[in-house]
Amino acid sequence: MVALQVHFLLVPSLVSIMGAAQYVMQDAALLSYIDQRFLSLERRLEKCSQDLLEYVDEFRELSKAALARLARMSTDKAELEGEVENLLTRVERAQRDIDYFGSIMDSNACVEVHEDLLKQQLLEEAEEKKRLKLMLNASCDHMLAGIRSLKVVKKTGGKHGSWMKDPGKKHAKIYLLSGSVNNVILEFANIMAFMENNQTLKARRVPLPMPWEGTGHVIYQGFLFYHRHGSLNEIVKFHLQRRNVADQMLLPGAGRIPAYQLSPQTKIDLALDEQGLWALHAEPETGGNIVLTKINPVAMAVEHSWDTPCSSRDAEAAFMACNTLHVVYNSPSGGSSRIQCVYDVLGALNAHTNPGLHFPKRQGGHSSVHYNPKERQLFAWGDGSQIIYKLHTEQK
């Protein structure tokens, strides 16, 4: 009985001891696994460190080699540049020698070609001059020598305007165009009717279908020629008796800047002389110098143009007389008007200045100055006054 009790007491103890031994064996296995893993990691880290050191050494060697190669390339580049410069110098020297020998060999041929071109150019210039003389019917043998006197005919209208006769007609009618923009012409029977106090009541009113711009209009052979307001460079030919537009044309290059600096309202100034109808304007391409154009009034077409040396700076007006342009200058504040630039299109007179050719007995500016070739007088508009200047001429 006692033995049986002891057996029952020992069995639980043995079971407990066996369980504890089993747990100890499991822990030992776990520790062994962990130790192996750490050994593996340590070996891998050691290999990484060794590889990194090898990479660093390799990079240093490569850097040294690259720097040495670059240094050699820089030296080679300097030597190559020197050789190239030397070669270029030799090529340029050879080219100069070739050009020199070529010029010696071909000089006679070049002289012959240049002489032929010069002869051809002189021949063309002579033909052009002959054509211009025929076109202009060069019968003008007089030149302006002075302005002898003035007569203030009337004072009517504002600061800007123009008045004139028709030199192509036998009648003595006077035409008044007041203002720089308007569409009504006043026509008077003669100068006496114009001078009367109530002259506007007796005037014949001629309305225009399109208004004018500026003061550069002229009346010639029964037609009014004027720059149409609102257009850049359109010239209108208006029949005064039939009261209709007979023709129109465009004047190339005109209308962008004023013809005269002191008369900015006038972009195109039309003029008459013994040879007919002319147009005057300035262009930016000529530096503001005046461009002179001969117009065929029947065909309303350009016949010829000249770039003159006469500046539009400080100019207030201009007129044509016997194929010659006369530009009137003044000061911006107004003073004594003077003709300071003269240009003969046929070359009988060189373009020159004449500061002594002053307008007599008057101070102030001109809005317009028109030459009447029939009477050889100037019809001018100055500060609202209608003025006639008598001219003194002499042989060219």
TrEMBL record:
Residues 70-97 form a coiled coil. This is OLFL1 protein. Residues 139-395 form the Olfactomedin-like domain. GO terms for biological process: signal transduction. It holds the Pfam family OLF. Disulfide bonds join 140-322. Its main location: secreted. It comes from the Eukaryota. Keywords: Coiled coil, Disulfide bond, Secreted, Signal. Residues 1-21 form the signal peptide. The lineage of its organism: Eukaryota, Metazoa, Chordata, Craniata, Vertebrata. It is found in: Secreted. One of its GO terms (cellular component) is extracellular space.
